[in-house]
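Progress against Task 2.4 (sequence-to-structure conversion) is shown through the following example record, which the project officer requested during the mid-term review.
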Amino acid sequence: MTDAVDALDRGRARFAGQAWLEAYEALSLADRASSLEGADLEMLATAAYMIGHEDEYLEMLGRAHRARLDAGERDAALRDAFWVGVNLARRGEMGPAGGWLGRAQRLLESEGDSVERGYMLLPTMFEQEAQGDLASAGESAAEATAIGERFADPDLVALAGHEHGHLLIRQGRVGEGLALLDEAMVAASAGELSPIVTGIVYCGVILACEDAHDLRRAREWTATLTRWCDEQEEMVAFTGRCLIHRAEILQSQGAWTEALEEARRAGERCLQGENRSAAGEACYRQAEVHRLRGDFEAAEIAYREASRHGREPQPGLALLRLGQGDRAAAIAAVGRVAEETTEPGRRADLLPGLVEVMLAAGEIEAARGAVEELEGLAADFGSATLAAMADQACGAVELIGGDAATALAALRRAAGAWQDLGAPYEAARTRELVGLGCRALGDRDGGDLELEAARAMFAELEAGPDLARLDSLLAVESPGDRHGLTDREVEVLRLVAAGKSNREIAEALVISEHTVARHLQNIYAKLGVSSRTAAGAFAFSHDLV
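Structure tokens generated for the chain above:
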């Protein structure tokens, strides 16, 4: 009996010190010696959850519920039933989840005004959200928050408040939503919340910041979450999601090798914690880095794994198909997702890829329509990241449409924004377009300086496909008589000599097919030839390639 008491005291002390594995082992030992009472069973359940033993968490919490009922602690028993039901629902076990939540609801019906009424509004909120009724879900979240405030329950205030913030962001009310997220995160980072609620709020807030395309906020709160995880070496819960956020931040900062490793570790941790949806996100992050590096085979495998775990692999997979030269598959995939996606934040994720695919397909007006929508979302969200995305997409469209001056104005705004945001890959892509815009306006030196800068950035990132494209654009010109051809006409002629079609030339030079045809007419007239074959032969025989 003395050993059991010692184990219980030791378990309680380790729990207070967030030594989760030691707390779990000590409390388990005490429980085997003599069944624990409700509060101690809840501690054991929490420790099990934090080390990734979710099945045991649910079992112990169920036992705590029954022990508290026997002890007449109805409010605590209701709370235990609520958490069992919510976690079963998250796992997709809707029958058992409904049973536990129904049990909690029956207990609630015998209660007067209590904080538990606020907790029981959260399943209603999730159901309304699943049905697409975001406005009603927001009202439920706001009511739950008010109850939490009235009963001074910080867990309920933070849970309901951060969910309400995310719902507002998904409705396009970004400023209001971010304010609620910040308030919840302050409570979490100040240690005012219980351990599991702290992790839920950390991960939920960062995910919402990403949906709001607030890169700076996401970076700040991810650093805070990382510190929290690092302070608890034995913790498994939440660490997978933390690693996913870290991988995304590292990718945006150009640390691709580190991002890939963090995403790999995230996948392992998420599967260890039985979180398949998060594992799918980890696979998607791996796929994106592989695609950008040019390892298309590894990217293909990772996108398929993401899909297997339930993560939509678009728009990344469509961009992979584009890189592989399969335009038809890229167009079909991104078009399908565009039809399905209605929420503003989700569309903001999709639109840059849609612009890229439409431009590759020569669908300039479709691309321009996507740019206009992206510009509207950037204004609604007040997001510097979205504004940069919109300016970059606008510049690409105007450049291909033949208005290089308008393109350069938008592209220079985007380049400055990406630099301020510390996003080197996007900055390099934008500087490449600036270089092409300078060339289109006859400033060859200025264009080459921009292209060389972009190439250096791609080389540092090891962005294989982009590096190959820049090497082609910066190919050294052969000396000698140019036979009256302009710089652009020489570029077109070289690509003709390489067997490229008008569409392929348009893509390589970021101009329209109509412009390519006009350049060809000028080339034929200046060289005195009448066909592509003859023009290519002239180029080879006169050292123009």
